[in-house]
Specification:
alpha+beta, Helix Hairpins, Chaperone, DNAj Protein, Chain A, HSP40/DNAj peptide-binding domain, 4 domains, 4-stranded mixed beta sheet, 3-stranded mixed beta sheet
Amino acid sequence: MEERDYYDILGVTKDASSDELKKAYRRLALKFHPDRNPGDKSAEGLFKEAAEAYAVLSDPGKRERYDRFGREGLGAQPGFSGFDQEVFGDFGDILGNLFGFGTIFGGGRRGPRAGQDLRYDLEITFEQAAAGYEAPIVIPRLDRCATCNGTGAKGKDGVKTCSTCRGRGQVAFQQGFFTIARTCGSCGGAGKRIVTPCGACAGKGRVQATSTITVRVPAGVDDGMRLRVSGEGEASGDGGSPGDLYVVLHVAPHSIFHRDGAQLHCEIPITFAQAALGTTVRVPLVGGGEEELDVEAGTQSGTVLRLRGKGLPALDRSGRGDLHVAIRVETPRSLSVEQRELLTKLAELDGVETPERGIFERVKDIFN
């Protein structure tokens, strides 16, 4: 096959980025892959050619030498001679699992998997969320078997190296010009087989158990937040680290306060007379106790006053929020005789017509 320019092979310009190179190679690799073109030597050649071009251009050092000196600057490279695993470490990312190859270059098996993560829903009060809280909780989970220490085997002789993969956890076979590695079907990738199972866990390496732990809820948490407790999930089934426990918080609403982050809001009712003359009200605090708040004469309903630093603690420990107090002027629903007389007199002083003046008096005023 005639030696073509690597950039022309991939269909990119000489200033193409690494992402552009990868996309171009992926497109060609999917198009000319031998599994999609069985028995097509031309497609196989184009696939090898694209692989060779990407192997050079994806390596900054090789690309620089190629740009300056052409193929001569790369030394003796008689066409495609197989994949360099360091260059093609991201091959799985490029082609994904389209062809079901798994670890396509026959690398070593992956390490043991971590155990399953667990979730626990914890309900706390508004006050506990504001002040912080320590909650003992009971978690049902799969723990490592203490009898066999998680091996699943009875004694040291109860487990043997897998004869199929010889402990590697993978088996390799040739497919075209690829060396394919797949998880060993005999041992499931563990590299060993249990011949005498542990009686306590029936060879599973884990047993059902319950664990009581103390969860420390920091002050200022909000509804729906999650706390991660590392290592308190389920034990791994193949010797890996345990999973994590995620505690989801459910904060009960408060009868007086509602929050916006670290800011607290509440509403205080006062009478018309208090609003007109001014007064001092006592505002409850979320942690207990009260705080006096001066309401100036002439305060209108809906006015918001602020008590600095009386809100909730910030989770980033930057201080506390404020307590915002909305003043609500209440209109009385029923009046005593004396109250009605006083309010009627006040209305007359303000020049406001009241129901006590009948229609006859108002008509007479019009004609006069």
